[in-house]
Amino acid sequence: MNEPVVLVVGAGLAGFSAAAEIAGAGLRVLVVEQAAAPGGAIHRQPLPGIAYPVASAVHRRRWTQVTASVRAQGDRIEIRYGCRFAGLDHEGTALLTGARNALVRPRALVIATGAAERVRPRPGWTLPNVMTAGALQIRTKTLGKAPDGRILLGGSGPLLLAAGAELVKGGNPPVAIIEAGRPFRHVIGSLGLPLPYLREAAGYMATLLRARVPVLTGTEIVRIEKRSGALTLHVESSSGGRTFDGDLIGLHDGIRASDHYAAASSIPVMRAGDCREALGARAALADGRAAGAALVAELTGTVPASAKDSSRIERERRAQRRLARIFGHDGSARLAALPADTVICRCENRTVGDLRALGPVPTDRDLRLHGRFAMGACQGRFCTEWVRALTDPSHAGSPLGAVRLPAHPIAIADLLDAGGIADNPSTGE
Amino acid sequence: MSLPMDYDVVIAGAGVIGASTAFHLARRGMRVAVIDATGPAAAASGASDGAVSVASKKPGVMARLATASLLYTRSLAQTGGPLHGIYSARPGYFFATDPAEELALDSLISKLSGLGGPVTVTADGNGNIGLAGLGPTVRRLVTLTGEGHMLGFEAVRAYLSAANIETIWPDRLMRWEADDAGITVETSKGHLRAGKMVAALGVSSAALFPDLPVLPRAGQLIVTDRAPGQPLPGALTAASYLIAKTAERRALPNPPVVIDPLVTGQFLIGSSREDHGDPSRVDFPTMRKLVARAVEVWPALGARQIIRTFAGIRAAVIDGMPIVGAVPQTPRLILATGFEGDGICLSAVMGREIAAMVAGEPVTDGLAADISALTPRRFEIGEARSA
Prior knowledge:
The complex is a heterodimer of chains A (429) and B (387).
Chain A: E1 6-9, H1 13-24, E2 29-33, H2 57-71, E3 77-81, E4 83-88, E5 94-98, E6 102-104, E7 108-111, E8 116-117, E9 130-132, H3 133-143, E10 151-155, H4 158-169, E11 176-179, H5 187-191, H6 195-210, E12 215-216, E13 220-227, E14 230-237, E15 240-246, E16 248-252, E17 255-256, E18 269-271, H7 281-300, H8 310-327, H9 332-336, E19 343-345, E20 350-351, H10 352-356, H11 364-370, H12 384-390, E21 410-411, H13 412-417, E22 421-422
Helix pairs in contact in A: 1-2, 1-7, 3-4, 4-6, 7-8
Chain B: E1 7-12, H1 16-27, E2 32-35, E3 51-52, H2 61-76, E4 88-89, E5 92-96, H3 99-115, E6 120-125, E7 140-145, E8 148-149, H4 152-162, E9 165-168, E10 173-178, E11 183-187, E12 190-199, H5 205-208, E13 214-224, E14 236-238, H6 239-246, E15 258-261, E16 267-270, H7 284-297, E17 305-317, E18 323-327, E19 330-337, H8 343-359, H9 368-372
Parallel strand pairs in B: 1-2, 1-12, 2-9, 5-14, 12-19
Antiparallel strand pairs in B: 3-8, 4-8, 5-7, 6-7, 10-11, 11-12, 13-16, 13-17, 14-15, 15-16, 18-19
Helix pairs in contact in B: 1-4, 1-8, 2-8, 3-6
């Protein structure tokens, strides 16, 4: 078999449901996943041989369902773990790196790489042992247990509660959860959420209450300091300031879509799940299926029986909007008041002061070439939002942070090792 | 009707040629505005490697002008000059791995000796003369001294901030109308009235002068991560680059790769030459071809990572020479475009000479013949049209 495959990037809910849909139409699919286990961020499976105590029953059911749909397609779906997609060029060639480096020309591409996690710069956010709450979650799920030490979670968004509950189940409840918004004030608004959301939130809250984890709302993280080996978190609320000591801090300020991987190309490219629009796990499942069905229609001319479930996605969109309002708080004043030595771009170690030195309305070229913002290994994926907020927020659709090939740093040795271009990386033909 | 003059000169295009011209006009006491559709160094000047090199120029007019510009750039880099701290001297290395490239090195040496300085050969021999760390396939390496380096975007900023120049962006040149007293320039923001206009628009010139034989020529460039320690003191250039410059369209024996050590400790690896103007077109096979040769001649690169690639768009003229001079039908409009990657090197002298043209003075002694070789009159460019 050397027919070109449909390449699916990401073995989470969206990627797997897209793969099952496409393979269901008789097409061959290669799913590549950079991690050693599937599941993406929400359903990340533990490494082989590790028990998984932290997933909720709902999550387990959903994941069982999607993996069964993949398994049902037999060898029409190949899954390759530890394999990174380095981007698709304008001629339709993709580079895969990992155990087998290869240049491939897929028939079509589905990008299902998940959301990006937002972390607002604050003094001390780049210190060792300060990470994203999502990274803490993935670590907990992958290893089947929470990290040791005193853990603090802070920022804003429902993910903080989920991560906190998972740490409890992973055997090490967080010292505190610091939420900048005031979600519990929006009782009426909360009642407008779909029932599964309320049930999920109630589950997390019950777990946190049982473990006596304090959840402080209306409280913002002002700065993080390192003191004699430990981290000190300074927080402020309307009732004043206080500090918490910890060993690990997980920060989180929401998630956003992350469309960063493929050039306009000569082959069909679909985006599915949170990387297209950050709507969460329920939508990702439906969105992956919809993307798969649309791709099948484009490649074969036949519309699969499972029509696009747009009502489902619209429902999740409304729920996510409501959730955003419930947790909503305006961090822009705090961002604007950051001390000059606060790092914004951690790749190139550029600060708020470096940004201000470029004047009130720097062009994107100024920001990049003189300021060196978005010039590091991440190409501005993380700093662009904050650089924009601090300079000219009206500058929509700017090229700053527009990622160029490769989608992530690649070893020159891997590119040279990739050999000639194959249609199907499994056969090398 | 006599409209009030806003400026003596409006310069369209904030690339390195426009910026140098603005600097030299302002130094003459003229009121100057620079407009740009995007901002400073937004096109080729910001995507360049920054070589101020005579060696890489086509023999004849271009090599002579580059020589004059190199000498003048050095003087502008003296204490108190606009390029102080921007331009710095550094050695250059040209290598050959096959007989055709060795022949190109012979031509390089005779070109440089014909120019009589300031660029001289300090070493010439097999690989390890002059530079440790070369790969075993390098048969011959020529080491040059006398050349230098300045980053295009830093030069633009330096020129524009050194004198009293008004900068306006984003503001796009739309159309213009010259009369007996001056020129009215319509831009996306409004109207400007000036005595003269200089259009230094690089590849965008083609949109304003559809008959001008200026073509976009893209070059893919690769940026690596930082190397610990930087043992390459200057750019390492394939002799096939010289062949590409002198014999347009000829099949090259090897990719004309240039390995440029950046001040950050990163490397810039260039470049392909492709006849299109789409900066988003980069591809893995071209990337692979360039790094394959780069690693062959500088094996330490094999341990590096690629963090991004991009395509710079050069403005190429069909006969391989820039277009500089007044538009025959509209003498108040002076064109300066088509430098195809040579603009950084030539910017110092061209800015000075264009300023002389604007002032109605003769160009510098000794350069008259070479400057007049760049005249737009060598093409039938028709009436200047609006964009």
